[in-house]
């Protein structure tokens, strides 16, 4: 339904998009993630034919966005970042105007309105002027105009920005509801919304796609996996008369357990967890995409250890997002954040290692979390490309503006 | 044409959803009355002739310095600033249809105002008063000149509104541009160079409108206003399109 192939966009010297490629298939609800200035809105504006790409191609519902913009626009419902509506019109007048622009018959429009009013919850405000509505209701009206022609594809650019938590939850509920029958590309930097509404995510950073796939896959492939293993320190199979060949006849020490676990392939970063005096518990990291649970189980059987707990945890989507987009957070709402010397080293390493992000995830860990939080919360307009350009251009210097 | 009509209709009616249209029309009629009856050479009564020439002298200035800048300043500038332009353009509509719809919507409001001024000759020379035998053909050609002039002025305002995101800047740019074009002819005599004098006289709105007020309809004057209108609309289209490649 949506195919972007090597999309590039330059604003002067600033490269907003750098060969972005992805596909969204029929019926998918895909989260389009990235920090401010990563290229989300630029991509969406290209897909909706509002701006043109500098390079690459894109097709929406089989139509080329450059050659057949009208056909593309007929097939999509688009909610821009700030759902700007004509405030002097009433909700009904505005939706009626959009329906007229889309060439809907009055009877079809009225029929569609029954669904829209129900799904978007705008029954109470149909006769009110849009300028008198709260942000939440305006957003609902924006969603309504995107749905008025019953499009097969919805492109929603940060539909929950500026909303309070209750309104955000409502809008996400609407998106899940309408996403049952449509292809939706949902841009946001609220990760919980993506986890709630999207089975799949595309993460962009610095104008490039850095992750694309089902959420679980992104969590595991994009970061190290954490294991927690707890072994009984008092008993073994042997003591219980269930001796097996090769098993230890004495209770294991913490060092023995750690040494044995350390022999497994791809594990590192061992940390002993506090427990009572009946167990040894270790937390350690596994390599991305690997799974050593079978080996751990085999090891315990072989050693005659009682395995009290074995847990494998992928990193949270938030951690993955932070590590994949580290460096972008320094574009902190238009001002430079002072970079510590250590971070400068990390930043320069990032530049070199972007092509192989996955392999470096373990080293990224939590180092930039605090800065990243600042970057994630912002809602600066990506349309301010010139500002972004100057910020990006200055970035390698690592100095304050 | 359907989309052009929809945009023009929305643009036109939106003026009446706020006090803007009412204020502009009422204020313009009051000012026109003051100038028509009191200011010009002691006012209409001192002329002692059945003529509306005074009205056709003052109206273009009122349109140029008050009405058109106010009506056109927000056409695209405000849409760009508020973000509604993105909503509009991502509907199935071509850029030139947006420009044409905006132009027709704004021009429509100005035409309503021009039509309202017809109350002056009607009340004075037809019903309820009959102050003399008015040459209605001259009045007709005067109104034709106003219609053409208003189209050119609105297209200039639309173009300047397309070049900025600030209504205030759009207002003053339009005001200043129309001021220059209106009074350019007065400065013609100050040029020593004959070519400059001819050019100044040729592009002066005042000079181009004068024949219409006298009942003369020249093809050159028609072409002049239509050319300005067409050129400004084309440039506005280009100004709107450049967002794609910015």
CATH homologous superfamily grouping of the largest domain in chain A: P-loop containing nucleotide triphosphate hydrolases
Oligomeric status of the shown chains?
Answer: heterodimer
The CATH topology of the largest domain in chain A turns out to be Rossmann fold
What's the domain count of chain A?
Answer: 2
Order of helices and strands of chain B: HHHHHHHHHHHHH
Question: Outline of this structure?
Answer:
With 401 residues, chain A is α/β, with parallel strands linked by helices. Chain A has 15 helices and 16 strands. Mean pLDDT of chain A is 78; it is low at 329-401.
Can you tell me about this structure?
The complex is a heterodimer of chains A (about 400) and B (about 250). Chain A has about 400 residues and is of the alpha/beta class. Chain A has helices spanning about 40-45, 70-75, 90-100, 105-120, 135-145, 165-180, 190-195, 215-220, 255-260, 295-305, 315-325, 340-355, 355-365, 370-375, 385-395; strands spanning about 1-10, 15-25, 30-35, 55-60, 65, 75-80, 155, 185-190, 200-205, 210-215, 225-235, 270-275, 280-285, 305-315, 330, 335. Chain A folds into 2 domains: about 1-220, 3-Layer(aba) Sandwich (Rossmann fold), CATH 3.40.50.300; about 225-315, MTH889-like domain (Alpha-Beta Plaits, 2-Layer Sandwich), CATH 3.30.70.1340. In chain A, about 35% of the residues lie in helices and about 25% in strands. In chain A, the strands form 4 sheets. In chain A, strands 6-7-8-3-9-10 form a 6-stranded mixed sheet, with helices on both faces. A 4-stranded antiparallel sheet of chain A has the order 2-1-4-5. In chain A, β12 (about 270-275) and β13 form a beta hairpin. In chain A, α4 packs across α5. The radius of gyration of chain A is 26 Å and the shape is elongated. Chain B has one domain. Chain B contains 13 helices and no strands. The longest helix of chain B is centred in the middle third of the chain and has 27 residues, at about 135-160. Chain B has helices at about 1-15, 20-40, 45, 55-70, 75-80, 85-90, 95-115, 120-125, 135-160, 165-190, 195-200, 205-215, 220-240. In chain B, α7 packs across α13 (about 220-240) and α9 (about 135-160) crosses α10 (about 165-190). Chain B is globular and about 60 Å long. Chains A and B meet through α2 and α3 of A and α1 and α6 of B.
């Amino acid at each position: 339904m949506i195919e972007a192939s090597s999309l590039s966009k330059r604003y002067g010297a600033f490269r907003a998009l750098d060969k972005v490629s992805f596909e969204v298939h029929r019926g998918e609800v895909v989260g389009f993630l990235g920090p401010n200035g990563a290229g989300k809105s630029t991509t969406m504006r290209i897909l909706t034919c509002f701006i043109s790409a500098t390079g690459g191609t894109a097709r929406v519902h089989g139509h080329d966005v450059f050659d057949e913009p009208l056909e593309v626009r007929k097939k999509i419902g688009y909610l821009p970042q700030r759902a700007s509506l004509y405030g002097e019109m009433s909700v009904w007048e505005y939706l009626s105007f959009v329906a007229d622009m889309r060439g809907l018959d009055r009877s079809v429009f009225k029929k569609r309105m029954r669904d829209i009013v129900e799904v978007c919850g705008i029954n109470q405000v149909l006769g009110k002027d849009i300028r008198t509505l709260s942000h939440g209701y305006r957003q609902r009206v924006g969603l309504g105009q995107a749905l008025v022609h019953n499009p097969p594809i919805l492109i929603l650019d940060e539909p929950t920005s500026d909303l309070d938590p209750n309104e955000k939850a409502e809008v996400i509920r609407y998106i899940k509801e309408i996403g049952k029958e449509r292809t939706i590309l949902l841009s946001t930097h609220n990760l919980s919304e993506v986890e709630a509404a999207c089975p799949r995510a595309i993460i962009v950073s610095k104008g490039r796609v850095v992750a694309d796939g089902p959420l679980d896959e992104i969590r595991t492939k994009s970061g190290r996996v954490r294991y927690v293993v707890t072994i009984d320190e008092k008993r073994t199979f042997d003591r219980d008369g269930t001796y097996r060949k090769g098993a230890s006849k004495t209770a294991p020490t913490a060092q023995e357990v750690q040494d044995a676990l350390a022999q497994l392939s791809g594990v590192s970063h061992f940390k002993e967890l506090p427990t009572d005096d009946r167990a040894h518990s270790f937390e350690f990291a596994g390599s991305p995409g690997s799974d050593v649970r079978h080996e751990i189980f085999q090891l315990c059987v072989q050693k005659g250890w009682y395995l009290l707990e074995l847990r494998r945890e992928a990193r949270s989507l938030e951690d993955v997002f932070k590590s994949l987009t580290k460096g972008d957070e320094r574009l902190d709402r238009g001002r430079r954040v002072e970079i510590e010397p250590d971070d400068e080293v990390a930043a320069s390493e990032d530049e070199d290692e972007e092509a192989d992000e996955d392999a470096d995830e373990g080293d990224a860990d939590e180092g930039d979390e605090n800065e990243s939080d600042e970057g994630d919360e912002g809602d600066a307009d990506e349309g301010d490309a010139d500002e972004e350009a100057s910020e990006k251009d200055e970035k390698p210097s690592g100095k304050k503006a | 044409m359907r989309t052009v009509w929809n945009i023009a209709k929305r643009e036109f009616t939106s003026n009446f959803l706020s006090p803007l249209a009412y204020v502009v029309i009422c204020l313009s009629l009051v000012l026109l009355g003051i100038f028509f009856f009191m200011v010009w050479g002691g006012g209409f009564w001192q002329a002692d002739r059945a003529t509306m020439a005074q009205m056709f002298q003052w109206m273009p200035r009122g349109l140029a310095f008050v009405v058109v800048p106010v009506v056109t300043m927000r056409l695209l500038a405000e849409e760009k600033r508020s973000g509604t332009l993105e909503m509009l353009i991502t509907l199935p509509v071509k850029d030139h249809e947006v420009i044409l719809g905006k132009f027709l919507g704004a021009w429509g409001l100005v035409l309503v105002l021009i039509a309202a001024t017809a109350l002056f000759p009607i009340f004075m020379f037809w019903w309820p008063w009959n102050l003399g035998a008015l040459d209605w053909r001259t009045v007709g050609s005067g109104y034709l000149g106003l219609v053409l002039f208003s189209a050119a002025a609105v297209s200039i305002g639309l173009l300047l509104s397309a070049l900025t995101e600030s209504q205030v800047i759009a207002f003053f740019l339009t005001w200043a541009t129309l001021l220059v074009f209106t009074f350019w002819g007065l400065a013609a005599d100050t040029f020593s160079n004959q070519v400059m004098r001819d050019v100044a006289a040729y592009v002066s709105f005042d000079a181009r409108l004068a024949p219409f007020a006298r009942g003369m309809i020249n093809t050159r004057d028609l072409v002049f206003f239509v050319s300005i209108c067409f050129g400004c609309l084309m440039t506005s289209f280009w100004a709107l399109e450049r967002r794609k490649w910015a």
